[in-house]
Design goal:
- The complex is a heterodimer of chains A (about 250) and B (about 170).
- In chain A, about 45% of the residues lie in helices and about 20% in strands.
- Chain A contains nine helices and seven strands.
- Chain A has a seven-stranded antiparallel beta sheet, sandwiched between helices.
- The longest helix of chain A is centred in the first third of the chain and has 21 residues, at about 35-55.
- Chain B is mainly α and about 170 residues long.
- In chain B, about 65% of the residues lie in helices and about 0% in strands.
- In chain B, helix 2 packs across helix 3, helix 4 crosses helix 8 (about 130-135) and helix 7 (about 110-120) packs across helix 9.
- The longest helix of chain B has 21 residues, at about 140-160.
- Classes of the chains: A alpha+beta (about 250), B mainly alpha (about 170).
- Chains A and B meet through helix 1, helix 3, helix 4, helix 5 and helix 7 of A and helix 1, helix 2, helix 3, helix 7 and helix 9 of B.
Amino acid sequence: MTRTPITDNDLHAYADGQVDAARRAEIEAHLAANEEAAAQVREIRRLNRQLHESFDAVLNEPLPHAMIRVPRRSPVQILTRIAATLVLLVAGAAGGWGLNDYVGSRQNPMAAAFPERAGIVHAIYSAEKRHAVEVAAGERPHLVAWLTNRLGTEVKLPDLTEEGFQLVGGRLLPGETKPAAHFLYEDVDGRRITLYMRHGDTGNGNTRFTFASENGVGVYYWIHGPSGFALAGNVDREELLKVAKLAYKQLSSN
Amino acid sequence: MQEKDRLIVEQIPRLRRYARALTGNANAADDLVQDCLERAWNKFHLWQTGTNMRAWMFTIMHNIHVNQVRKTGSRPTVVSLADWTDDRGVKPTQEKRVEVRNVESALTLLPDEQRAVVLLVGLEELSYQELARVLNIPIGTVMSRLSRGRERLRQLMSEGGVAPQETVKET
């Protein structure tokens, strides 16, 4: 059997995890016998790690106002709408500008925006592999204490294992005027569910257990006086309902 | 929220990460992301459902960046060097030799084409094939830029400093 010689390109592809299994074996044999090549692979991997160490923090930075606030004409109104949501969501509201633009005539803009907000939080953070959460499930007591402190109300963390979802972790997010809490759960197939929680920031009145579909992201939400809860996920509605009921039961009990 | 909104919004954090690394400047990076988002929304009808949204948006961002660099007539590697501040907001001392302490400062000394390839592979983890399509260059060019870019970074970081004029333009 003739072997294709190992080239510089092979070493890069190997270090980047971009070779197939057959070629990988050949390259590994080469590396075992060639210290210089092995050192080059280590060097490439070290560089990739350094890039992540230097720039991954950007993933967690709040989105700036200026980035999206430029006035726009009709084709980009959707952008403005989403932008307003993101700005309010991530950077916090400075007087609630923009909010009325996109919730229009809905009676309780705060409450109406709530499920959409939960859908966007889910879309942004459940797509993240490495930065889905700020505090991991391993630091659960810290997570609960931190968010309880910041939200100004006792934050309970429902246990959803009964429906197959384990806590990944959580983070603090700005709501309209006050901090909000975000928790992420995942099942064994890697499907993710977002629990989004606010306190004193959902307007007046109660909303019963309600379903909203944000195109692909299903959201069950309920608002009790000052507290709002939303469960969002790309799972089918029946299943989401089961999980939401489980969360509801635990969050409503004293 | 529409499906298309969701698809685009999902990309924002990673677009920002790449733009930050590419430009070496937080403001320039966010301007780039914003331009990219506007264009993505306007041209969404050109995106083919089922294809890779992320690669599509990186393509848009790349094209905008290349045009900006062409317009200004100078490569931002040199410009950003003077403006470059580190995390603590401290400007590096502008002496004959620029201190290269970490990968961030070394990146600013890399030719633009090489920096894009090194980042899209090492940071954004695009496949070489995706990258060839995003940058609209042959795969062989992807590999040579990757190899040269990484070698250059290695030298810059091991030497600990180099004059910016020494930055070699790719032929």
